[in-house]
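Below is how a single chain appears once it has passed through the pipeline. First comes the sequence as given, then the structure the pipeline wrote out for it. We keep one example in the README because the format questions we get most often are answered faster by looking than by reading.
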Amino acid sequence: MQQIIDYFHKGCVIPELEQDNKADVLRCLVDALYSAHNLQDRELALDQILAREATESTGIGNGIAIPHARVGRLNKLHCAVGRSTKGIDFSAVDHKNVHLVFLIIYPPTQQNKYLDFIATMIRLLRNPENFKALMAAPDAKSILTTLEQLTDLSESPQDDFELDLAAIDAQHIPDAQANYSLMVRLQLLLENLATVQRGKKQYQERIEKTRKLIDPTLLSHFDKLMRAKPPAVVAVEGDTCQGCYMKLPSQFAQQVRMEPHKVHTCPHCRRYIFLI
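Resulting structure:
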């Protein structure tokens, strides 16, 4: 599996954004990303990202925004990152300015990789020390180096998640982000296991280790979904479940946004839904 850092390019890192409004920042990051990778359909991607932001902000709180779009004619996921010391009004969920913007585009065929990328970044950035380290990096090269160092550490999350699951046993309150991240990673591992020609034993070992870290009740439903109607964990785009392509009831979608500490399933297909 690729490392998270593999989806970044030095030409797509802007250490100090000159723009001071959301639309201009998004255009700047899309331009940087499409120029660095010599991609086509730049305006299509920008239109999708702007439309998504008009529906609901991707400012997830704590100074972070993760705008994204699913774009055809791509062969892999790409990410650009922009930093603003002053901060940008993104209409974030916590009503605070955003200082780090991670803009993602990905092909429709790589939803599992997209979900794994998103889940890993959220887990990484919810740590205030990691946020401070990225804000303190002096230039684009240092930002990439810091991301590489932080994501190398996040590739071995067992100790962290074992503590989370211990809290579940004691308090009966699941750590939603930890379990989402683990289930997405498990789903991607299972997908890769079915296609790789070499290293199947290593994948199987990682699968077993990951399964042990997921809350047993959530894992049981995950297994049922993977047997009956994979994938088990899907994204929500424009309030539409990407598993059954049914629109979530507006009141339910709002409830999901207001309860990030809980794991939610689509009321139509019962898949786990990841809304960002």
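The chain has a mean pLDDT of 88.

See the next section for the split statistics.
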